[in-house]
Amino acid sequence: MTTSEPLTGLTVTKLCCVRGERQVFRDLSFHVAPGDMLSLVGPNGSGKSSLLRQLAGLLEVTDGEINLDGAGEDQTVADVVLYAGHLDAVKAPLRVSENLSFWAAFYGVSATQVEPALEAFSLGHLGHLPAGVLSAGQKRRLGLSRLALIDRPLWLLDEPTVSLDTASIAALGDLMRSHLKTGGSIIAATHVDLGLEGTRVLDLSSNGGASL
Amino acid sequence: MDSWTEFFNMGGYGPYIWSSFLIAIAVMTGLALQSWMDLKKQKRLVSELEARAERKRS
Amino acid sequence: MNAFFALVQREVRLATRVGGGGGMAVFFFLIVLSIVPFGIGPDLNLLTRIAPGMLWVALLLSALLTLDRLFQADQEDGTLDLLVLAPQPLELTVLAKAVSHWLTTGLPLVIAAPILGLMLNLPLDGMLPLMGAMLIGSPALSLLGAVGAALSVGVRRGGLLISLLVLPFYVPVLIFGVSASRAALVAVPGDLGGQSLALLGAVSLASLVVGPVGGAAALRVAVK
Amino acid sequence: MAWSIHTYANPTRFMNFSAIVLPYVWALAGAGIGIGLYLSFFVAPPDYQQGDSVRIMFVHVPSAWLSQFGYGIMVVSSIVALIFRHPLADVAAKSAAPIGAVFTFLALVAGGLWGKPMWGTYWVWDARTTSTLVLLFIYLGYMALWAMIEDPNRAARVAAVLAIVGAVNLPIIRFSVDWWNTLHQPASVFRLDGPTIHSSLLWPLFVVALGFTFFFIGVLMVRMRAEILRRKVRTLQMQQAAA
Q1: Which domain range does residue B17 map to?
Q2: Domain count, chain A
Q3: pLDDT computed for residue A21 by the predictor
Q4: C and B interact (at least 3 Cβ pairs within 8 A)
Q5: Strand runs labelled E in D61-174
Q6: Residues of D with CB below 8 A from C152's CB?
Q7: Which residue of D27, D146, D178, D187 sits 20 to 30 Å from the alpha carbon of A58, by its own alpha carbon?
Q8: What pairing do the DSSP bridges indicate for beta strands A154-158 and A81-84?
Q9: Can you give the CATH number for the domain in which A70 is found?
Q10: In a domain, A206, yes or no
Q11: Is the ipTM beyond the 0.90 threshold?
Q12: Cβ atoms of A31 and A11 closer than 8 Å
């Protein structure tokens, strides 16, 4: 996975998050450089999902700053970020291959990339089936295959390993490793050790909302 | 006395005029009262919650 | 533009695979219209007089029926996040959604309208003006409806809310649409048909701006 | 603190300010309505055409004015809320809606009570009545949207979008209803241009309208105070749940 745009990193300064008037975390500062993997840990409600959504621009930033270093003037978060939340965004009535070809077309990726992306999670032989018949783990893999399809330097993953078996976790680990090797960055909320070298850990429980 | 009856009769339009005024008064009073009572209720809730927080702190 | 057509294609495909897409709306249209004579009696002259109005009212209701899934379904399975994050402007995404809603609801109803017109004793020479007016006016229903659908994303019982929000905004479409449809039936002085058709077109064009802009603004808020 | 300076300072200032101002607003409202009604009942003569029925205008016209005024406040507040994120703006927009809706309702009721002796029917589908009815529906839809979204911050922004879309569409709706009305107006019924009011009634009417407007502002302030406190209650409850 090559990064299309040179991005020297992501800098977060004194970020705060308020959800429905409740303070989730505050004064969060960190930096992610190309090739970095940042693992978010913390108990439920400590704001792992909220932080990822803020970074993706899907949640309001109450206070603080998120800076994309080295991004051009006309580059927005959408050009840099690939977000995989805990919902798979899979449409049951569509075929497996149709599901992915839609995202290819919508994100401006050539249709020839669809087959290899499915193969990354060994879904190639299921392409003709309606996605509705897939198991939870297979749906998850279909959702994650967008990572292999769409080329963005910064991945934001929210519990990507949920309902995956060991083989698929290994496949995800391989994909993430090659993304990091080519200068990409990953921020992921996950409890599973993916065996990635040089993973840094950000513990959100110390910034908790309990200190309101 | 006669002039008062005449006044209330309003040239035969009395029922319409007085009911329109009465409805307006009733509705406007009701609105003001409802708003005021809501304000009272919120004030009470705030002081209750603050008192509880105070008790916990001490 | 590729992204736009990809979304339209996907939406139409989804609509045809789940519950026959336009089929449900046409069925609803049919059933509402066949209830009317039970309410007002089988007097054919009376039915002729109210046919254009009834057809338009039924069109509004059928269009409303399918609006609540427009963004709600995508919000529930996480698709909406990815649509918002995509490089395509959100306004175009809303427009694509409205276009697909029209293709799967508005267009089938316009095609079915003459058949249902016959049931209400609408004379044959009134069919063409009716279809023309519906063809011009129905896109406005989908475009304005998209704003209502976007506003009620994530709201429980959102379908009911959409109707409350959107129906007042349908008033101009109904007025100009019915007027353009009945011009051929009732002799009116002046070229009223053409005038109301032009006004109907103007409303549709205005909705072409209001729909995507308002819908995108509402979606940005709804996702956050 | 979750509220901190960003959300709290202005509401606090408003609470202090409104507490001082409110008595004067109520006094002005009472004086305007009282004096205006005295003038209109005991000083002004009955209209030479409509007789005493014209006095219903003292309810109808101010209500109709406030139905527009209320929507105006809603739209301006919504724009301020969306662009500047001023924490008081969405409180004002939310609080104005029910008051505007109530006066829209009153305008319709008073119009009907005037119409019965004048036109022989309580309800006519004339242009003004009809577009006022549509306005009432838009008010109710706006209130329903607020009621159905739990998080006030989210509701505020969604409702602001609706208010602005409504403001763009209202002229179109007005025009279409006007056009529809001239189209269907049977020639035998006299023009429903609304009553023309004799100048001797105009001054009292103006004074009553002023009093009504102050009443509107008074209720608006009370409702805004209640709304600010309601949000404070929510915050306190959430804090206690988290503690």
Answers
A1: 2-57
A2: 1
A3: 65
A4: no
A5: none
A6: 145, 148
A7: D146
A8: parallel
A9: 3.40.50.300
A10: yes
A11: no
A12: yes
